Prior knowledge:
This protein has 2 domains: 22-178, Jelly Rolls, CATH 2.60.120.280; 182-292, Arc Repressor Mutant, subunit A, CATH 1.10.10.60. The chain contains 12 helices and 9 strands. It has helices at residues 27-31, 99-106, 110-113, 134-145, 152-179, 182-199, 206-213, 217-228, 232-250, 255-261, 267-278, 282-292, and strands at 22-26, 37-41, 46-54, 57-61, 64-67, 72-76, 82-86, 91-98, 120-123. The strands form 2 sheets. The chain has a 5-stranded antiparallel β-sheet. Strands 2-7-4-5 form a 4-stranded antiparallel β-sheet, with no helix packed on it. It is elongated, with a radius of gyration of 22 Å.
Amino acid sequence: MKSIPIYALYGEQQQDHGQDWLHWETVQSRSRLHDYRIAPHRHEQLFQLLYVTAGAATVSIDSERHQMMLPALIAVPALTVHGYEFSPDIEGVVLTLFERDVQLALRATPEIAATFARPLLLQGIAPADGKGDMVGVLHQLIAESDCRARGHSAAMLALLTLLLITIGRAHLASALLAEARPERAVHHAQAYRALVEQNYKQTRALADYAGALVISATHLNRVSRQVLGASALAVIEHRIALEAKRYLLFSSLSIKQIADLLGYPDPAYFTRFCTRVLGMSPARFRDAQQDRD
């Protein structure tokens, strides 16, 4: 393939010019048609919001890949190259709007327009509380899109504007939180590293560590990157990889035994993990080191 595919909706070449304001569908409905992998592509005139609530998801935005910490919302402006890999139990919705309508809504809020000039990823979003929160407004917009009562166009513009404002505010709050209290970030990062040392064999769930620190998984990931220079998941994986190398080099345990000790009851999964983080299978890593000796 010599060029990046440009779609109306993923897998569809033609734009429905009769479409009014918004198309929405579940993440499950389209991704299952493509074996839960949406290859990198872009939309010429469309702006998308993807809100994922459950399952597992990896997003590629231009040249960067992110393991999403759910619930999460992604805003993708027109012409942004993006793709996804989902688990089969994925849950969420995708909203597709015309870029022109998003720009129309942003005219009323020029102070946040720059927020949507590039892709935006918000993670660890609180559930809707029905009081004008971001997720609540998102669902109001979906409900209005299915309605054709009087004042529909005005209501759509008003709700879209409100949604963009709430997303912009959430993004600003997230950025301010990352900059605030650096000493607390160091404290959390150090405490997290200590917890990983104690528990990496038992759990790799960020929610478990975040709960022990009484912070959100999103905040844990943020302080880990800020202070430790790696994502929270990477810190756990680096510690597991270190222990795996120790066992492979200095013990006579079988790979199955090592996998079990490190919390991988499935040796095949452990092999895939080692291949990813060590660059080779555990058996090959062990053999390579022995050959050097």
